UniProtKB/TrEMBL annotation:
Cellular component aspect of the GO annotation: membrane
SUPFAM superfamilies reported for this sequence: LemA-like
Record field: transmembrane: 7-28
Keyword field: Membrane, Transmembrane, Transmembrane helix
Major subcellular location class: membrane
Protein's membrane topology: Single-pass membrane protein
Record's subcellular location: Membrane
Protein known as: LemA family protein
Gene3D superfamilies for this protein: LemA-like domain
Pfam families, alphabetized: LemA (PF04011)
Family of this protein: Belongs to the LemA family.
Amino acid sequence: MNKKTNWKLLLIIGAGVIAVILLCVFGIQSSQNKAIAFEEQVNTASSDIKVQEKRRVDLVYNLADCVKQYDKHEADTLKAIVDGRGSTGDIENVTTAIAAVSEAYPELKSNENYKQLMTELSMTENLIAEYRSNYNKQIKEYNRYVRKFPTRMFLDMLGYEMQEYTYLDYNAPVDAPQNLFGE
């Protein structure tokens, strides 16, 4: 009976050791999976910011082009009106010149495009601020998780480190830009 009892005791101890090892492995893997999920949230938040910043750059160039085109159209229209007045003092010719200019550009609504681009630029700026706030929240959650005990011990061994917040640095010139719409 003694050998049978020893054999059962060894089997129970062996099963207990294997269970503890498996529990540790699954616990560590669970911590790593959660850290990976937090890292992905941080990366997604960072990518969202970059997408909106790219959109901002595109909108600024489109806005500048729209303003240039609208200024050119306005100058051409005024020149046509002045030329119409200068050729003869007759008010009927001036009215004809104005009608001709408006007929030449029936669907040109650059001022509406300008307004729409300004609205989109404003919305983009608001989205960038919102995405930056979300990014900081994601960094905070990730760092909080990585610093918690006992996950900190396991994640340190696996190479997970705290992430730094990204601060704004536009490398913008000190002087205001000049001649934005010059050719």
